[in-house]
């Protein structure tokens, strides 16, 4: 039985204004279904793990929404971070809490806001990773790259084994030149930010590389089911470094031959921005992708317009003529327009709004 | 003293969704000032005509707005059409009503929704036209063409006179091939839809070409200040043909050598669409033209965006990144996005919305 952890942080800035700090993308139904990304992630794990063995690590401002979106998730399995401390702290806390419950438990970590087309293939891949994790490897799941994207970590396949291989390198977010080289070499896979390991193996490696973090999360886990938890969290959590598990643990662990990878081919997409979102959702005959249609009485009139991503979510009409390859997002308090090939720069737009002090809009 | 008539009809479809049938462009302050286009037109005529000698011809749905926007305009000078019958009927009615008051009055007709940069030059040009009109010509004002635009009438200069010249041809809305020829020849000017004539001269020419229209407007004018007016208007007005004064009178009058033109160089723009509107209003350092800013608490954040025309009129934030040469219009019930070089096609967009039956949005 897998203990499945879902770190649910991050506001999905590049999906602004649909995704907000107060209403981040994992709470949105972006998949065309009426289930949010978080709910879809939770559902997808049901063949691998019972609700009692699933956990969500999230921030104070989203705990209530998580509890309501996942009514079958036990309250004690919602781990609330007093403040964001990136994925190393979140995942380490979950591992320590699980270890208190079952010292050699198999743990998986799965991002809350990814899209997966083929759930059966996903389950098979995770099962293969569980087998190799049982033997003591820190397992990753590798996606075949579709381009030299520098926003992903790259996994270099090493010695082949039955289900996958031991990593010879884990390179988090390389520069563009390196990424091109990696992709052309054919030896690298994308890190899908999914991990499977025995908690005792992970915590041992954490202790080798981040002893202070290990000590802190073990203190917190020991007090987890006691009245001291809140006080201790408020006292210790803010002292932790903001660092991702990739930099904090995985890169060096891979260099030490302790990381494995199972290739995953299940239609994975991390929905980084409106362009990638548009690429995975069904388009109309003009190639336009309308997101959220039907949720409200909102609607779209597009004349001689092709391959646009249009998000009508305010109930107002979005009308466009002669536009190709544009993103048009309409919300109650903001309209955002951007060419699809500039979708990554929505992050910079949000920074500009932040600089003006319009925090209410972010 | 000039009797100045302002035909105020037309909804400015190509300026949708800012301009609506119920709230047409001539009622909007699009000039950067806080005066509507109608008010600016009315103001501009003050050196040529007293308020008692100015008239507005408008539809039933705009009569109240016109009365409120122009408090110094006498109520009896607001001529309300029971239904739209294009400019021939509107101008002929005004001419007949003025003739009842002063049979040889000098009358000018000036569109309600045009922009004029140099008012002094405009006044001088109209005065020159008045002199030639006094001598019995139907006077037009000619604008030097800036391109082969097929949405204007073209005036071919003929025999030169002191202030201007007699027209040898008045060609309303030519095809593109002809327009290119006209512009390259250098002998043609654009018809600015401004006319100056003696009402007796105009009505005589109207009688020659459109005897039924003359008879009808003279019946109406005779009854104008009697209780019979409303009944007669309701009875006769709907029987009139929908035709512009250009086709109904000016083309043939020009062929008969009865039309003159005075060249006008006063920064004229008929604000046909958002692209031309953007071209006449001041732009920021990135070439972006923001219209209506300050009217509401609405605002714009544009990052790495150039030469866009942005209309924030709903109070919401309009945010854009990486967009060049686009039109973004935000209103309470509709958002419109269109490339500047497709601005003319907004008309087709409105037709598409009409076809869907969303008349409330038009």
Give an overview in words:
- The structure is a homodimer of 362-residue chains.
- By secondary structure, chain A is α/β, with parallel strands linked by helices.
- Chain A is 32% helix and 25% strand.
- The first copy, chain A, has eleven helices and 17 strands.
- Chain A has helices at 37-44, 63-69, 86-101, 119-134, 176-185, 199-209, 211-222, 229-236, 245-255, 274-280, 346-356; strands spanning 2-8, 54-59, 78-81, 106-110, 115-116, 138-143, 154-160, 165-171, 188-198, 259-264, 268-269, 289-290, 299-303, 309-312, 317-321, 326-330, 334-339.
- In chain A, the strands form four sheets. The first copy, chain A, has a five-stranded mixed barrel with strand order 6-9-7-8-10, surrounded by four helices.
- In chain A, a hairpin with a 3-residue loop joins strand 16 (326-330) and strand 17 (334-339).
- Chain A is globular, with a radius of gyration of 21 Å.
- In chain A, 51% of the residues are buried.
- The model of chain A has no long low-confidence stretch (mean pLDDT 92).
Strand order of the largest sheet of chain A: 6-9-7-8-10
Elements of chain A, N to C (H/E): EHEHEHEEHEEEHEHHHHEEHEEEEEEH
Number of helices of chain A: 11
Oligomer: homodimer
Q: Determine the mean pLDDT of chain A.
A: 92
Largest sheet of chain A: 5 strands, mixed, barrel
Q: What characteristic shape of chain A results from the CA principal axes?
A: globular
Strand segment count of chain A: 17
- The end-to-end distance of chain A, rounded to whole angstroms, is 40 Å
Classification by helices and strands of chain A: alpha/beta
Largest interface: A-B, 34 and 34 residues
Helix content of chain A: 25-40%
User: Which regions of chain A are unreliable across 5 or more consecutive residues at pLDDT < 50?
Assistant: none
Question: What is the radius of gyration of chain A?
Answer: 21 Å
β-strand percent of chain A reads: 15-25%
